[in-house]
Amino acid sequence: MLAEEKARLRSEVLARRDALADREGRTVRIHAQLVVSPEWVTAGFISTYVGVKSEVGTIPLITSALEAGKKVAVPVVEGTGLTLYRIESPDDLAPAPFGLLEPRRELRRKARRLVASMMKLFVVPGVAFDRECGRLGYGKGYYDGLLGRIKPHIPTIGLAFDAQLTPKVPMSPSDVRLGAVLTESARYTRQTS
Known about the structure:
The chain is built from five helices and twelve strands.
């Protein structure tokens, strides 16, 4: 039943996101919030997804981080999980299956492979989010697996359009709540007890 509820919500929110007008302008507003956030300002090492299709784009963020002297890692699906690789330029990215952009194969060597514990901030994609920072991904559990391995004090921020917000994301025990979600109009922060 939970799987069916997630599939229905995923389909509904992806249709809303795909139909959204002015994604570029909305993305600029989301970026403006992120780059002044304390998590971004203080993080010297950032892991970020590479936005594709109708997701909130991240190439300008990657460029901005690198220009500011921050180190940037992006994930690659390897086996049943995500492996992080350091990039030094957006030019280090190349097309991969499913329309993704990933570090070029020749750059995926041991010296560029990183462990999640090195990151000081995770910028995370998703399909649907709620105001309590619940996140619904694409259904494979890759990010939940990655985020489940990091210490609780490491900031995690989801980037989303307002159209991706839903009253409550259905979550299983293995799903990971984020620390914050940024949209073009607001910041939502998980309340911890």
